[in-house]
Amino acid sequence: MTFELSHVALIGISYLLLLFGIAWITERGWIPDAITSHPITYILSLGIFASAWAFYGVIDLAFSYGYGALAYYLGTGALFLFAPVALAPLAELARRHQVHSLADLLVFRYHSHAVGALTTLCMLLGILPLMALQIQAIADTMHILTVSGNPSLPLQGTGLTFKDLMALCYCVILALFTILFGSNREQHRGLITAMAFESLLKVCALCAVGLVAVYGIFGGLGGLDEWLADHPENIALLHTPIRDGSAHTLLLVFIATAVTMPHIFHLGLAENPLMRNSHTVTWAFPLFLLLMALPVFPILWAGFELAVPLPAQYFTLGVPILFNSPGLTVLAFLGGLSAATGAMIIITLALATMVMNHWLLPTFRLRARHDIYRQLLWLRRILIGAIFLGGYLFYWILDNRYSLTNLALLAFIETLQFLPGTFAIMFWTKGNRRGMLAGLAAGTLIWAGGLLAPVIWHIEALTMPFTDVVIPVGIEHWSDVTLVSLGVNTLIFVIISLITRQTEDEHYSADLCAADELSHPVRQALDVHSALEFKTRLAKPLGKVTASREVDIALNELNLSINERRPYALRRLRDQIEGNLSSLMGIHVASEIMDKHLPYQVAEARDTVDINLMENRLSEYRDHLTGMAAELNNLRLYHRKTLEELPMAVCSLGRDMEILMWNRAMADLTETPGEEVTGSRLDDIAEPWRSLLTEFCNGSETHYYRREIELNGRPHWVSLHKAAIEGTINAGVYDQVILLEDVTETQLLEQELVHSERLASVGRLAAGVAHEIGNPITGIACLAQNLRYESENPEILETAEQILSQTDRVSRIVQSLVGFSHTGHNKKSDFQAVILRDCANEAIQLLSLQKDKNQVLFSNDIAANAIVAGDTQRIIQVFINLLSNARDASPEQGRVTLESSEDEYSIIFSVTDEGSGIAPEHIEQIFEPFFTTKEPGEGTGLGLAMVYSIVDDHGGYLDIISPADTVHNRGARFTIKLPRHIDSVL
To answer: How far is CA 666 from the centre of its chain?
Structure first.
């Protein structure tokens, strides 16, 4: 069964256009996020691991190594089975530091540009055979489908055949697809969705061929058992493979593929949120591999039964052909096409990124005055085309001389050389760049001499210089080359790392990679003071437009404003910008730009713990902590909550005066939210706190008592206390904890007590003066009385009356002063009948003596029978305070009205003024001690608090109505309700 070339081309192009369409509609949001962001989509996109070799070549591997072929699935499956331990830390590093390739990760760990450059070179050499494998698989299968007569495949070819032209066209189409949907900076959601679709198609195609092999060719599982019983040599082949002695090496080779292969690292760790899906990956991806592995042996046996005239590697296509099923044949072809397509696209993207970031950008600087994004885009597009061309040329040079299995092993063994260096990222902090470079170079040279060179130049043996020792080389000796190269690589890496020292930066990066940033929470200082300054600094290397855009992107990602000045926020901004630039131009170039134009100050680099960083990281990791770590974190949260809710104002400062903690009471006292100042410098907070705290922190005194400051135009008094806390990294480095007490109420109360004592002294003096004045006043009154009876002269009589009137007024004033000086707190059992009208008159009389105050008209309309049970002097105090406030609030010559009403058990009286009224926001606070709206020095804020206390002691109730005059929107009315005196009721 054969197909027309035009039909096969149409099928292939239609499938590629379908991938184009899926990627295109995903980028435009036409496919719901529930699908594109689903963990299953992510799992399927990881299916690029199963390239054309997994679709075709594994059959040949099963033929050659029997059960050893399962090592391909077991190695990778085991790694993903333990993804939370083995892969999730790498994924977290990639996410946190915007690492997009294995070369970036190694550069970050070993802090060396040479490591990135060598990694890129070795990866290119190792992946070229894998790309040639994909191209060869597509060219061969297209040739199988279109050849006339029987579908046998000539494995040798010369020159640029028609098959090679088809392969070239395939590479050109794929290059265009990759350039359109993979070369931009954004996360490639369309590309990921397209890769998920191709994985779904190939697993369905492989399982379909497997089902046909079992049920269509053998008639079911029972028929397969009978066939195996009749052909025991096939069972023996599983346990005693043709190439015995190498199966155990396969497992070692394939374990590393999940991390070191660039396409798997790119899509598995760099493009996708593995951390969120790590638990799903542990079972879902091994299940995917199981589905890929199940049909392998049935397809192999079906090929034997049908006597497919093809190499075993193409039994997946040969079985449907000889089964005479055009539909299944097309499905199998599309499955292989999708497997090769997905791998080629992601491999090319990963390699293009590595070459650009570690070869070109460090060597050739971009022109900052031009659009950097456009320059990078075109550079990446050119590299994509060049890598496709390189893969095709390598395929053409090999000229179909090697099977897919040979090409796969050639690629996998080279990528295995990255295993020691990658393993040391997480599990061996002593590894250094010298050991990494020497080990990788040695392992790669052995691989190149033992496998790559013999494959290209048909070398079968090498003679050692100056000896007659002949070493057999070539793909037939791949197992020996694997063990020797990896062993030498690891040995050199370990020995050189142990005998040479790490640099300080290397040691720091090793600590970060070995655990997380909490392992080395150092607070570093920047010499910038605002987010806006970032744009100015970065304008030189990036250009004004690019610098502005990158800073704005980072600010938006961190939810910060351009006016941000807090040091901690600026450090986060710097790290975010560096991460974003790493994804744009590689971690080496990004670090170089940031270290040159936005450097950290070395003096602070190793002395001070970054408490804010620790808090941020612990918050992120809280759901991932278990056991003792979770308990310690809960204890930390408890103590943190205790400090936050403490009713005393507390803040802590670093040695560089950075605010590390600002509790809720501190925020209430300073009227500055903690989230606005935490991480900022003490110099950045508002006055008067800046001056007060700076002076206190820099001084030698550990206590300040009752320092007066002005808040909202009013005096406040605070006491300060501080203590030093020794740092956890270096002895002798101290942070400070400061405690603030608001003693304003205490200060005002003491002042009021002093004032009250003075009033009491005045009262006692007034009583004495009244006694001394009383006798002369009585004598004057007597003389006036006698004068009135001894003379008939109208003028003398009028004078006598005036004298009597004035002496009577003096007597009343003196009696009022004496009565007021005797004011005290009586028990309710001592309460007597109090006539409210008389108390109001006495208060009015006392207030009338203050000639320097507003002169108003007091209108006392309280009923004469308004009698309550109480303390006369304290009721007078109520009237004095209310009338005094009413007089102060009223305009000159205004009216203050006193009125009363009654019910069966109570007397209600009110004081109403014609002032501006009381603001609504002040009504709830007006009875609080020390609250006043008067100018400083005009009032203590205790008058109404005293009124409220006296009324409460009398079992009464007080209410405020403002405005009292709703027509003119003015005035305030204080209404008091007191119990009536029982005798007055009777």
So the answer is: 25
